[in-house]
Design goal:
The chain is mainly α. The chain has one domain. Helix content is 79%, strand content 0%. It has 8 helices and no strands. α1 crosses α4, α5 packs antiparallel against α6 and α6 runs antiparallel to α8.
Length: 146
């Protein structure tokens, strides 16, 4: 039971911004590139990614968090959460774009720090990095098309 609670503690905060998300219809009003996925795919993808991130945090917690790991995890978390606020709530494509790029950058640093602690655990973050590369590309196109 203690392990489940610990995992939940690492997982649940990632869903925080979704509780305050409004204006999802804003996305549908934008000029979108041909490769933009359907809106239903986003919550599915993010749920899977947040589970993988939480598993990686849980596994790293067993080794002990280094200062750099904590720094990049917190920074990445805050930037990840800020995208929803900037893009959907404030309807700022520019701030969303900046948040997306910085989230990708800090996710890479988090991956690198995770790899230094446990290489196998770092593999759990590869889908997150791949999705953020795609999201950054999508965000770039949305910025220039609108």
């Amino acid at each position: 039971m203690k392990k489940i609670l610990k995992f939940a503690l690492f997982l649940l905060p990632w869903f925080l911004s979704s509780l305050f998300m409004n204006n999802v219809g804003f996305y549908k009003t934008l000029n979108l590139p041909f490769f933009a996925p359907p809106t239903w795919l986003f919550p599915v993808a993010w749920t899977i990614l947040y589970i993988l991130i939480a598993i990686s945090i849980y596994k790293i917690s067993e080794f002990g968090f280094t200062d750099n790991y904590k720094k990049y995890l917190i920074l990445n978390y805050l930037l990840n959460q800020s995208f929803t606020i900037f893009f959907f709530n404030l309807k700022s494509i520019t701030l969303g774009f900046i948040s997306c790029i910085l989230t990708l950058l800090t996710a890479y640093f988090l991956y690198d720090e995770t790899k230094k602690i446990d290489k196998k655990t770092s593999y759990l973050l590869i889908p997150y990095l791949a999705w953020l590369v795609f999201a950054s590309l999508l965000s770039t196109f949305i910025l220039f098309m609108n």
